[in-house]
């Protein structure tokens, strides 16, 4: 090798709670190159970058910077080596001004020890101008649009004279011309010898700006190669992998009557012109990348969000759904994503979480019958294989899979005809995942109309009869479950292709 | 966390330490009560006198009734600062109604109605107006006091119907009637919180409002119900307060009752942010406050210093409960 790579990560291994996340991964980034790091959700990209950023420690393997071995014990050491990490979520303090955010933690002070506001403002203005942004440094961040916040986040990394900048999906909230400017800047940085690791799902962007790429899949290195024009297809294939499509769960059974019809459902800024139907016994999937609007769509459908227009027909009858309670009365159940924030009541016991949405089933003369609750729970415990010794303990002490089963039991008890599952297997181990898929299928066979939202394309491919792909609040494609594959879904989810064949 | 798991999953072999820590976390307020009770009986023999004991109960009954409601509000994740002012307002208006009608029943009913209505307004502001409960009830605190002062022209109003004072000054066996009312309310609220869906929803709402709403609970109605409930209990407390001296002062009655009620709830182990806590904890919390007041009186501690001791106890209680 003629020149040393700026960063070399050698044979990195990392497991969380005994689950291997990275297996023998090697990554080299040259000085002055833009290196794309690719892979699906859960491929191990973030973990690898967190190791480089000093947030996690590798179980084994070494990190070299300019040929010297270093231990990234904490984020400060990583920063001292000239590495900046621009996270996907914005780390801005909304109540501070632009320049205060830029210099947070590294304020410039004059000799007397007071803040040198003028100098900080001057530098802020200069750096933002490089990005083609002209902002008053004394503007409060909360008054700025998200894209500006993202640009400020990027400027912050520039301010620290970084040698290597890690960008995790930096363009999610940028407009097209801003993306163009960002790429311009990245090319300039490259010329001045700064290296960039660029994480994105948007393959087109990667092709436009990156020199080389590394693909991770299931925690393993798949390929590192230089970026050549026209091999996007190949990269998609590498990301998805061939062996991944496991056997499909779906079995052919007759669908019943129309359960849910949605026409022209729109909510400004969240989703537009959504049309779809679900029959009894049918499993309909929705997938897409972060920010595609599918969660907002179904939160609206379930009455949690109220600002929407369009027609919702349940069993042929037009309904105005204004509250989750009216949704329940119309016959809809909703297992939300982010179980901890949206689904479980952590201070209530397992039994009480189960009965929460259907208290009427357990009352006599207006008083709750504890015994009836417990009896009902033990029948669900058996049916869904919920592992809990004492159902009176609070639900937060259960594992993720068992918590999810309790939430499913809650909606089974409410006995709705339509069930919406949002990321039903989020943070659940493989065994429990299988059981949940099985249960969903059983429900469909019993004639329930099922809707599944998932960020994982393989998941909807495995269990859905119909798959809708969403991008930026619109349905960009609709497929019959066994007539598509992950690659195709990815094309529509990333916006690389639009308006596919509409079936059904 | 680990200790709790051990307890739950292998009940046959709980370690001594985990059992102690469980006992402490579940019943710390009762243990504290027993310690303070024993300390008080050792320090002053007059403390154990039955009349003194009954006196303590009588003294805590009014704040106790309010604290029951405060527990419900705080379990829902809110707070009600307006209880003292609403008590004065309900008292003043009920005395006017009593005197005008000559009917004790109408007087009592008016107090309950005024309290419930003020609570309902608080609930509307919190649930529909999405105003933080601290702010909404702070506003009500100022407004209710002001209206009471205006109606009574800054002074006191006295009852002119004979028999009204019997409510607070009669005994049943050895107990004063207010004490029995307090006990009855405690049982009532306990049943509401643990045996009805309203109580279940209050816990759910205080623990995780979004999840409660996504569980198809009408969160807004529950909130309005919670504030209306405490308002009604304040009405009950106002009847006792008025009946005790057959008069109510628009300027000083109920002053700082909110602090004592909140203190009792906090000492009783209810979490400030809601979702966790017990009615029984609040009852012992109010008894601890009552014993402390009583002891300081018996030992001739300057009344000016009593607030200091109370403050200290509240802070100590919270420090000990912080060990989650």
TrEMBL record, chain B:
<dbReference type="Pfam" id="PF02653">
    <property type="entry name" value="BPD_transp_2"/>
</dbReference>
<feature type="transmembrane region" description="Helical">
    <location>
        <begin position="172"/>
        <end position="193"/>
    </location>
</feature>
<keyword id="KW-1133">Transmembrane helix</keyword>
<protein>
    <submittedName>
        <fullName>Monosaccharide ABC transporter membrane protein (CUT2 family)</fullName>
    </submittedName>
</protein>
<feature type="transmembrane region" description="Helical">
    <location>
        <begin position="21"/>
        <end position="42"/>
    </location>
</feature>
<feature type="transmembrane region" description="Helical">
    <location>
        <begin position="81"/>
        <end position="98"/>
    </location>
</feature>
<keyword id="KW-0812">Transmembrane</keyword>
<keyword id="KW-1003">Cell membrane</keyword>
<dbReference type="GO" id="GO:0005886">
    <property type="term" value="C:plasma membrane"/>
</dbReference>
<keyword id="KW-0997">Cell inner membrane</keyword>
<dbReference type="InterPro" id="IPR001851">
    <property type="entry name" value="ABC_transp_permease"/>
</dbReference>
<feature type="transmembrane region" description="Helical">
    <location>
        <begin position="279"/>
        <end position="296"/>
    </location>
</feature>
<feature type="transmembrane region" description="Helical">
    <location>
        <begin position="54"/>
        <end position="74"/>
    </location>
</feature>
<feature type="transmembrane region" description="Helical">
    <location>
        <begin position="131"/>
        <end position="152"/>
    </location>
</feature>
<keyword id="KW-0813">Transport</keyword>
<dbReference type="GO" id="GO:0022857">
    <property type="term" value="F:transmembrane transporter activity"/>
</dbReference>
<keyword id="KW-0472">Membrane</keyword>
<feature type="transmembrane region" description="Helical">
    <location>
        <begin position="104"/>
        <end position="124"/>
    </location>
</feature>
<feature type="transmembrane region" description="Helical">
    <location>
        <begin position="302"/>
        <end position="320"/>
    </location>
</feature>
């Amino acid at each position: 090798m003629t020149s040393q790579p700026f960063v070399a990560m050698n044979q990195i291994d990392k497991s969380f709670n005994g689950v291997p996340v990275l297996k023998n991964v090697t990554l080299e980034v040259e000085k002055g190159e833009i290196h794309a790091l690719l892979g699906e959700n859960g491929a191990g990209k973030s973990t690898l970058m967190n190791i480089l950023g000093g947030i996690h420690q590798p179980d084994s393997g070494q990190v070299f910077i300019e040929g010297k071995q270093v231990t990234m014990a904490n984020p400060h050491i990583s920063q001292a080596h000239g590495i900046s990490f621009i996270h996907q979520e914005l780390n801005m303090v909304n109540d501070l001004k632009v320049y205060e955010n830029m210099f947070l933690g590294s304020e410039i002070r004059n000799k007397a020890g007071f803040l040198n506001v003028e100098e900080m403002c001057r530098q802020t203005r200069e750096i933002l101008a490089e990005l083609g942004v002209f902002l008053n440094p004394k503007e409060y961040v909360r008054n700025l649009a998200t894209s500006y916040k993202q640009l400020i986040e990027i400027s912050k990394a520039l301010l620290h004279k970084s040698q290597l900048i890690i960008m995790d999906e930096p363009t999610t909230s940028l407009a097209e011309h801003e993306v163009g400017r960002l790429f311009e800047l990245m090319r300039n940085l490259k010329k001045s010898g700064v290296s960039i690791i660029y994480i994105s799902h948007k393959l087109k962007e990667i092709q436009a700006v990156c020199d080389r790429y590394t693909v991770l899949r299931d925690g393993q290195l798949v390929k590192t190669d230089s970026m050549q024009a026209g091999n996007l297809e190949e990269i998609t294939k590498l990301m998805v992998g061939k062996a991944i499509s496991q056997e499909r769960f779906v079995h052919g059974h007759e669908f019943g009557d129309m359960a849910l019809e949605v026409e022209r459902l729109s909510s400004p800024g969240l989703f537009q012109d959504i049309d779809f139907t679900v029959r009894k016994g049918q499993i309909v999937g929705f997938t897409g990348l972060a920010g595609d609007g599918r969660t907002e769509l179904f939160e609206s459908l379930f009455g949690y969000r109220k600002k929407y227009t369009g027609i919702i027909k349940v069993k042929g009858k037009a309904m105005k759904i204004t509250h989750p309670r009216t949704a329940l009365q119309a016959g809809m159940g909703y297992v939300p994503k982010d179980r901890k924030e949206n689904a479980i009541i952590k201070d209530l016991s397992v039994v009480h979480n189960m009965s929460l949405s259907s208290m009427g089933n357990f009352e006599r003369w207006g008083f709750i019958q504890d015994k009836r609750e417990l009896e009902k729970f033990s029948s669900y415990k058996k049916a869904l294989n919920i592992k809990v010794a004492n159902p009176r303990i609070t639900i937060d002490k259960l594992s993720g899979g068992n918590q999810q089963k309790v939430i499913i039991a809650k909606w089974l008890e409410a006995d709705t005809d339509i069930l919406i599952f949002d990321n039903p297997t989020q943070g659940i181990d493989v065994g429990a995942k299988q059981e949940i898929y099985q249960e969903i299928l059983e429900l469909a066979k019993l004639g329930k109309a099922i809707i599944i939202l998932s960020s994982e394309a393989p998941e909807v491919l495995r269990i859905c009869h119909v798959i809708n792909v969403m991008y930026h609040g619109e349905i960009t494609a609709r497929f019959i479950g066994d007539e598509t594959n992950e690659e195709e879904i990815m094309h529509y989810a990333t916006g690389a292709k639009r308006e596919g064949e509409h079936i059904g | 966390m680990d200790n709790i798991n051990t307890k739950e999953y292998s009940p046959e072999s709980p370690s001594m330490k985990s059992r102690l820590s469980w006992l402490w976390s579940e019943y710390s307020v009762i243990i504290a009560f027993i310690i303070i009770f024993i300390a008080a009986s050792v320090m002053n023999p007059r403390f154990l006198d039955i009349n003194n004991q009954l006196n303590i109960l009588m003294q805590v009954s009014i704040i106790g009734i309010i604290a029951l409601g405060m527990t419900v509000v705080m379990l829902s994740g809110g707070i009600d600062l307006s209880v003292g002012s609403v008590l004065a307002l309900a008292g003043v208006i009920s005395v006017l109604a009593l005197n005008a009608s000559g009917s004790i029943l109408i007087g009592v009913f008016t107090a309950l109605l005024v309290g419930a209505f003020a609570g309902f307004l608080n609930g509307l502001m919190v649930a529909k107006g999405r105003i933080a409960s601290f702010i909404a009830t702070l506003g009500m605190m100022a407004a209710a006091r002001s209206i009471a002062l205006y109606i009574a022209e800054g002074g006191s109003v006295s009852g002119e119907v004979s028999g009204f004072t019997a409510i607070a000054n009669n005994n049943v066996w050895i107990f004063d009637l207010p004490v029995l009312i307090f006990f009855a309310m405690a049982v009532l609220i306990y049943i509401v919180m643990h045996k009805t869906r309203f109580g279940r929803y209050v816990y759910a709402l205080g623990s995780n409002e979004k999840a409660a709403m996504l569980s198809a609970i009408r969160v807004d109605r529950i909130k309005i119900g919670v504030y209306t409930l405490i308002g009604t209990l304040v009405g009950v407390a106002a009847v006792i307060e008025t009946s005790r001296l057959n008069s109510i002062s628009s300027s000083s009655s109920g002053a700082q009752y909110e602090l004592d009620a909140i203190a009792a709830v906090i000492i009783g182990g209810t979490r400030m942010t809601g979702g966790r806590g017990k009615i029984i904890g609040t009852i012992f919390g109010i008894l601890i406050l009552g014993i402390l007041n009583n002891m300081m009186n018996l030992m001739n501690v300057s009344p000016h210093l009593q607030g200091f001791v109370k403050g200290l106890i509240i802070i100590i209680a919270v420090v000990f409960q912080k060990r989650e």
